[in-house]
Amino acid sequence: MGQLKQFKNLEIDWDMTPEDAVGLYLEWGNNGYGGSYENRVKSKNDYSNYFVVYTWDEHPKVCLVRRNSDGAEDLACLMVPDKLLGAVRKDMGQLKGVFPVNEEIRSWLEQELYH
Questions:
Q1: What is the pLDDT of residues 41-65, one digit of tens each?
Q2: Kindly report the CA angle at 96 between 91 and 100, in degrees rounded to 5?
């Protein structure tokens, strides 16, 4: 793997969800992340780096996303290892979509990033 190691110094918002990212960066009347006005988006220079689980394809993948008010960029995408497919299906079932990472996926990502 090792693809994520190049991002080990990147500030990751582990609490950011796809829904929160849309609300923070794309919705009118941006009211701040987590209800805090200190965290509201002030310019296109404000961005978040966060992970999502992408289940639109046959085999789920996890993507590191950078988002600002202009859009989103996938910095890296990794296929979910077979040993973690159960962790993905546990929370998402067979639903197709974009989901936040769960604890098992986060632990794996932290290993890939920092060790």
A1: 777 788 899 999 999 999 999 999 9
A2: 45
90: tokens are: 């546990």
* Structure token digits, residue 74: 């996938």
In this structure, the dihedral spanned by the alpha carbons of residues 41, 49, 55 and 18, taken in order and rounded to 10 degrees, is -20
Query: What is the band of 108 on the pLDDT scale with cuts at 50, 70, 90?
Result: very high
Q: Would you call 110 helix, strand, or coil by DSSP?
A: helix
pTM of the model: 0.86
Q: Which of 21, 6, 5 lies closest to 66 in space, CA to CA?
A: 21
Q: How far is CA 31 from the centre of its chain?
A: 20
In SS3 terms, 33-92 reads as HHHCHHHCCCCCCCCEEEEEEECCCCCCEEEEEEEECCEEEEEEEEECCHHHHHHHHHHH
